[in-house]
Amino acid sequence: GESVGLHLPTLSVQEGDNSIINCAYSNSASDYFIWYKQESGKGPQFIIDIRSNMDKRQGQRVTVLLNKTVKHLSLQIAATQPGDSAVYFCAENIQGAQKLVFGQGTRLTINP
Amino acid sequence: DAGITQSPRHKVTETGTPVTLRCHQTENHRYMYWYRQDPGHGLRLIHYSYGVKDTDKGEVSDGYSVSRSKTEDFLLTLESATSSQTSVYFCAISAGQGVYGYTFGSGTRLTVV
């Protein structure tokens, strides 16, 4: 099975609140991690990435945190907006492999 | 998506017929991938290519074949379509492993009746 998974399959938040989407991985040889967003009817889109020599990386309204001690990855979305509604996937690159391993995805819904 | 196109976007075919899906890129990326996406299974890798004529199997390769005769095109063929191959198929490209992420196409929705 896949080594990347998610704690929650669905997440519902109020508009304007912060969202936190979690991901667990099991392969200590993973050296690169990516978060993707997939809107209905579209392909996954790159959001943000982080390398294993970092523990935090920020983008516009998004932050990725990496805790290698417990093999945990999270995506934080600040001031969640209706346009953030989507399925979010984490993916890991295992050092030496030629392909990413994807998690199952978390569906984020925004309540008005 | 910029630099990667999939065709067709939608297709309905009958069981037992051959089907070819095409992925075309203009980014000159070395790596190309075919995934299928089904409810409850997420993205599953079918086949991938790491160069012209260089391909390898993914986790769900049975019933599928691929070809890459030039950098820009990666074809996925279902030799004899079955209902279990009804799915959304995504192509992805990457400039390198462990350095860059993937760029995905918009997908092909295939229905086998």
Compose a concise summary of this entry.
The complex is a heterodimer of chains A (112) and B (113). Chain A is an all-beta fold and 112 residues long.
Q: How do the strands and helices of this protein lay out in sequence?
A:
The complex is a heterodimer of chains A (112) and B (113).
Chain A: E1 4-5, E2 10-14, E3 19-25, E4 30-38, E5 45-51, E6 56-58, E7 62-67, E8 72-77, E9 86-94, E10 100-102, E11 106-111
Chain B: E1 4-7, E2 10-13, E3 19-25, E4 31-38, E5 42-51, E6 54-57, E7 64-70, E8 73-78, E9 87-94, E10 103-104, E11 108-112
Parallel strand pairs in B: 2-11
Antiparallel strand pairs in B: 1-3, 3-8, 4-5, 4-9, 5-6, 7-8, 9-10, 9-11
Description:
The complex is a heterodimer of chains A (112) and B (113). Chain A is mainly beta and 112 residues long. Chain A has no helices and 11 strands. Chain A has strands at residues 4-5, 10-14, 19-25, 30-38, 45-51, 56-58, 62-67, 72-77, 86-94, 100-102, 106-111. In chain A, strands 2, 4, 5, 9, 10 and 11 form a 6-stranded mixed β-sheet that branches. The termini of chain A are far apart. With 113 residues, chain B is mainly β. In chain B, 0% of the residues lie in helices and 58% in strands. Chain B is built from no helices and 11 strands. Chain B has strands at 4-7, 10-13, 19-25, 31-38, 42-51, 54-57, 64-70, 73-78, 87-94, 103-104, 108-112. Chain B starts with a strand and ends with a strand. The chains are: A mainly beta (112), B mainly beta (113). The A-B interface holds A 2, 31-32, 34, 36, 41-46, 49, 89, 91, 93, 95, 97-100, 102-105 and B 1, 31, 33, 40-43, 45, 48, 50, 56, 58, 90, 92, 97-99, 101-107.
